[in-house]
Design goal:
The protein is built from 14 helices and 21 strands. By secondary structure, it is α/β, with parallel strands linked by helices. It has three domains: 92 residues, 3-Layer(aba) Sandwich (Rossmann fold); 210 residues, Mur-like, catalytic domain (UDP-N-acetylmuramoyl-L-alanine:D-glutamate ligase, 3-Layer(aba) Sandwich); 145 residues, Mur ligase, C-terminal domain (Protein-Tyrosine Phosphatase, Chain A, Alpha-Beta Complex), CATH 3.90.190.20. The chain has a ten-stranded mixed β-sheet, sandwiched between helices. A six-stranded mixed β-sheet has the order 16-17-21-18-19-20, sandwiched between helices. Strand 2, helix 2 and strand 3 form a beta-alpha-beta unit. About 1% of the residues have low confidence.
Length: 473
Amino acid sequence: MTSGIPSAMDRPHFIGIGGAGMSGIAKILAQRGAKVAGSDAKESATVQSLRTLGATVHIGHAAGHLADDATSVVVSSAIRADNPELVRAAELGIPVVHRSDALASLMHTERPIAVAGTHGKTTTTSMLAVALTELGLDPSYAIGGDLAGPGTNARHGEGAIFVAEADESDRSFQKYDPEVAIVLNVELDHHANYASLDEIYESFGAFVDRIRPGGCLIVGEHSGARELAGRVAGRDGLTIVRVGEDVGADVRIRQITPKGMTSEVTVVLGAEGSGSGGTAEELTFAVSVPGRHYAHNAVAALAAGVRLGVAPSALAHALTAYTGVGRRLQLKGEARGVQVIDSYAHHPTEMNADLEALRGAAGEDSRILVVFQPHLFSRTQELGKEMGAALALADASVVLDIYPAREDPVPGVTSALIIDAAAAGGADVRAVHDMGAVPEVIAGMARPGDLVLTMGAGDVTDLGPGILARLES
């Protein structure tokens, strides 16, 4: 057994190693001394960073990529049963480990903080990881996006704290046993895995049951998070801390002040359960991204750090070191007075939040132009009308074909569901089926002062450089 890792993770092989969740675990294992290998569909900056850490990464999937001496094969829920490397693992008798079990094994001896919720997980996890690092606590972390400063989504630290994004989409977050858990919000999503909102609540309830004895659950102001708090209240040894703008919050947000593409938030700690010893303390600090929802994320991160014993004032100051994370209102560049910004938003709630944030940050004469790529057929089938309604917040929108990810097409489910709903609400919206045509289309629409937002969880993020180049030319 290599120092600091389970024996099954000595020589792991990751199928889909370039993915946001998989790459983070692979990076931490490589930093801890494991002999990491894997495969991915294409070259990427993430693949290159893994090779820099000593990992062997093959492009494409083939049985021969799996070494005979691999101690495990790590997969996510997106890997299909007929993947040739997975089939080869069965032939060789190599254990198959789900991504969540691999991450849980790395977190087990640490002081884990698990950040969950339908939206905002990546940002909140990132804010906390940056702040704790700034304070010299040297945490380990695994995040679903690359931090703007370090440029990575994961790191092995020598400190006792491990901050992890906890994914509810396939119930894998039920594998973790955090000392502190954050639930930002609870909404119906991931329709291929959950048939109802009650199933979502049951899944989050199972996640809460895994919190260590004497641990803490921090819940956001979202109605679903508050409903969850009510359902789990009274469980033995569990402290619940409510964060929000309402008067009854344990960590109360007193004011959020927009300041262009940033904001300033004032909070009051001191109510019972807040972790500050019962003495009221008011703090004001800056948040490097605009929007009320990002301010709420920052305060949830603050509450989690305080529960671990970090001084509130020091943590609030350290949170100002957060400068963003990839795909969360990330500025990709500016050309001819037009800013191109990238957003991971793919659920209507996220779309609304990011568009409202940009609307508050934009100048009076600025327009918001959106390039939206729907993510998953199941999500579009269930929430297409709501996505269309969200696009009404933009001045004009281009809608691409659905990014399928792990799903097969569903008859009758296309981007037209979104476009028709948006048009019915009076939105200026058009379909573009060829991604290669998008830069030309946007160049014909944009004028100085406009904001162009590439939005979605698929490969729409790749369009930013091309749009900037076309605007410049």
